[in-house]
Design goal:
Layout: H1 2-7, H2 18-22, E1 27-30, H3 37-41, E2 50-53, H4 64-68, E3 72-74, H5 81-96, H6 99-108, E4 123-127, H7 131-142, E5 146-151, E6 155-158, E7 162-166, E8 179-182, H8 196-201, E9 207-210, H9 219-228, E10 233-236, E11 256-258, H10 269-285
Parallel strand pairs: 1-2, 2-3, 4-5, 4-8, 5-7, 8-9, 9-10, 10-11
Antiparallel strand pairs: 6-7
Helix pairs in contact: 5-7
Length: 307
Amino acid sequence: MDPIERAAEVRYTRADGLADVLRGADALFVYDFLSTAVPGAWHAADRLRWVHIASAGVDPVMFPELRASDVVLTNSRGVFDGAIAEYVLGVILAFAKDFAGSLRLQQRGEWRHRETERAAGRRVLVVGTGPIGRSIARLLRAAGLDVTGAGRRAVADDPDFGTVHASAVLADHLGHFDYVVAVAPLTEQTKGMFDAAAFAAMKPQARFVNVGRGELVVTADLIEALRAGEIAGAALDVFDTEPLPPDNPLWTMDNVLVSPHMSGDVVGWRNTLVEVFTDNFTRWCEGQPLRNVVDKQLGYVPSGGNR
C-alpha cells in the first residue's frame, strides 16, 4: 500500500468501524472479501465513487443500493485463475488415482493392491466460462481430458471449450460427463443451480467439484445424492456456511474431499491482491480506464467469453 499512502489519505478499519471512516472517502478497498459489512455502512458513503473488492466473486457487495448507484465496482479477476485450475486438476487426479484411499490404508499400515482409473480421456463439464473456467479448461485439456463448457449462451466453436452449452438447459447435458466442475459466478440465476434434480441427472460414476461459490449448491441435496450413490464423489472448496460446521456429514464421507476455501490461495496471493488494487488506483488517479469493471446488473466482469 506504500504507493497509495504517498498519494492519498488512507484509512484502515475493521468491519465495525467502516461507517465512521467511509464518510468523506472517495474509494473503498474491500480487502476482506468475505466481509458483509459494506451494506450496513453504506449510509455513510457520502462521496464514494469507486469500490474495489479483493476477490473475483463480488456477491458480498452486490446489494441493491450499490447496484442502483453511480459507484464503479471493480474486482481482482485474474489473480486466482492458474492456481484454481491446478486445484481442479489435482482433485481429478486424486479421485482417479484414489490418493485418499491410499493415505487411509497407509495410516492403518495395510498393504492392499487396487486398480485405479485413467484421467486422460474422461469427460469434464466446466460450468462457468469466465477466466477461471477457461484456465481450468486449458489445463485439463493439456492433461488429456475432454472438456466442455456451460455458460450463459451456447457456443459451437469456443476456443477453450470447443462446445459451450447454455446453462438454462444444464440438466439435459449433465449425464454425459465424468466430472462436473462448478465455477460460475453467484447470481440470482445460478444460486442453488446444483440441486436434487441436477445431481439426479448426473452419472452415478460422476464426481462433482465446486470451486465457485458455496451457494451454487443446495448442500442438503448434495449430501443426499452422495449417500444415495447418485454421484460417486465430490471435491468441495466452498460452502454455503463457512467454516463448514463440525457436525456436517461432508467431513466424514470417504468419497468427499474438503478444503477450507483455499483453492486459489498460493504463496504471495495477498500481496498480489494489493498490487491489483494499486495498479487500478494509479489508473484512477490518471483518468485511465479501470481494469476489471463489474457489470453491476450481471454481477461479473463481462468479456468476449460467455458467462
